[in-house]
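Support case: iron/sulfur cluster complex. Customer-provided input:
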Amino acid sequence: MLYKIIPNKCIACGLCQLKAPKTFDYHDNGIVKFLDSDNETLDISNDLPTELLNAYRVCPTRAIVIEK
Ligand code: SF4
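Agent response - structure generated as follows:
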């Protein structure tokens, strides 16, 4: 399963980091990035952690994508 961010859809609302603070961080302009990584894809081999599912659900612009 791939968990992706699409920075050009991000409106810098900050909600994803509230739901998953160990996964998300922001550039200086507030646009989303993964914590400690410049990749835009996270490969998740096991079940999707609840906090990542919650971040996916709360994103208002679908800047977070899950691909199976
Ligand atoms: S919830 Fe979505 S729009 Fe808001 S900061 Fe995160 S990725 Fe960007």
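The chain is about 20% helix and 25% strand.

Case will auto-close in a few days if no follow-up is received.
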